[in-house]
Amino acid sequence: MNDLSATKTSAAAGTTPNNMAFSGLPLSPAALANLVSLGYTTMTPIQAASLPLALAGHDLIAQAQTGSGKTAAFALALLARLQTKKPDTQALVLCPTRELADQVTQEIRRLARSEDNIKALTLCGGVPIRNQLDSLAHGAHIVVGTPGRIVDHLERGSLPLASLNTLVLDEADRMLDMGFAEEIAAIAAQCPRDRQTLLFSATYPEGIEQISRRFLRNPREVKLSAQPNANKIRQRFYEVAEDQRLHAVGLLLNHYRPERTLAFCNTKAQCRDLVAVLQAQGIAALALHGDLEQRERDQVLIQFANRSCPVLVATDVAARGLDISGLEAVINVDITPDAELHTHRVGRTGRADAQGWAFSLASLDEMGRVGRIDEMQGRAGEFHPLTELTPTGSGPLCAPMVTLQILGGRKEKIRPGDVLGALTGSAGFAAAQIGKINVNEFSTYVAVAREIADAALRALNAGTVKGKRVKARPMEG
Ligand code: AMP
């Protein structure tokens, strides 16, 4: 990102309250009243950093994760400029997945409630195009969709973009990962030159820089400091004897039952031991450490992100640069000697709309480290006894999804919609039972609800994807 001529703006969670009020923004009284009715009392850090610039008409490159409130950060800007009397499409939001596109459309509709008759439409692959053509014929002010299907519509001439004011690239890094670079370029080429482009991305790989150079004009860069939103994170410390430590992780997991937990260890050996202990307790945990090949690392991360592995065990080095946040829980299996690192670890939990847990296991020998953390955080850690951890729910913690690996990926021109179509078409599964779909170069990974995993596997092996027979196998989660 170094050679981009972007102006940098930073925001921390600790910005003064006045700067965090929506009322300071140039929004209509109706829009402000609607935000109050939605319970949005203060801006999230990404909103505080990007909305003033976006409302002033600047192009933006904003670093934001899911759960940060990024949708409202671009939605309020595009809504402010919308002319409802004009039936033309004035804003287009590109998303990597149908799941995200649906969420974005819903959030836009909520934020648009203050105005009559704003039409927002989702256009994604995996569903028949006919209904979409009918909906488009009635006009849509805002279109949210996945790149492949938007290109289909542009080729058919069913989505005129001549009146477009705002182009949003949401989760741009994931769109690139999924192989949508060409589609993004084709779409941007059909948008009017005189438009605002807002790019949101959790990470900045090389491709993002190229996209911003090609499609953004004098963009402002919005980066958030790593300061976690302390109010959203509940920290608890547990004193453990050395021989209780690994067992205590299982106690925490079976008591709090978080959907996704990142467990930090200080060493690789501790990671390995912890995974073995958890697996022996029937908890599917995977380790992320420097010895993994790239392909294995990708597979671990995919399974964790798509909710088919509930616990990821990592060292700080292995977790560095990972786009993983908004987790239900972080566990400090060992206390790190670096208090700042502790704050970074803990910052992986807690989202805009939900609280996250941060648990730390400390032996008497580690109390000095806890003291430094207390000093840095300006308050004393809250200690709880291990005895309060009793198993809840039925059986050991288990992920709701299972990942199926399909041999065949970008090389075979497989798209997420093809896999979704194969499972929801003649195989007859409900879209709600299918989770994230990741298409890599040679493999495709699809998360399916645990209860349909066997049947979905049989259906994939018996049927076709994109007209071709494929081989699929379950991944160990
Ligand atoms: P997003 O990162 O856009 O997926 O947003 C995450 C969640 O935070 C969504 O459920 C939003 O409705 C919610 N949200 C967004 N902005 C705010 C805000 N300023 N105050 C409270 N909740 C918010």
- Gyration radius over CA: 23 Å
Give the amount of beta strand, in percent: 15-25%
Q: What is the class of the largest domain in the CATH system?
A: Alpha Beta
Could you give the distance between the termini? 36 Å
* Biggest sheet details: 8 strands, parallel
Features:
21 strands; alpha/beta; Rossmann fold; 3 domains; 477 residues; Alpha-Beta Plaits; seven-stranded parallel β-sheet; single chain; binds adenosine monophosphate; eight-stranded parallel β-sheet
Task: Describe the overall structure.
This protein has 477 residues and is α/β, with parallel strands linked by helices. The chain folds into three domains: 7-225, Rossmann fold; 233-388, P-loop containing nucleotide triphosphate hydrolases (Rossmann fold, 3-Layer(aba) Sandwich), CATH 3.40.50; 401-475, Alpha-Beta Plaits, CATH 3.30.70.330. The chain contains 17 helices and 21 strands. The strands form four sheets. It has an eight-stranded parallel β-sheet with strand order 1-8-2-7-6-3-5-4, with helices on both faces. Strands 11-12-10-13-14-9-15 form a seven-stranded parallel β-sheet, sandwiched between helices. Helix 14 links the parallel strand 13 (329-332) and strand 14 (356-362). Helix 2 (45-55) runs parallel beside helix 3 and helix 6 (147-156) crosses helix 8 (181-190). The site of adenosine monophosphate has 14 residues, from helix 3.
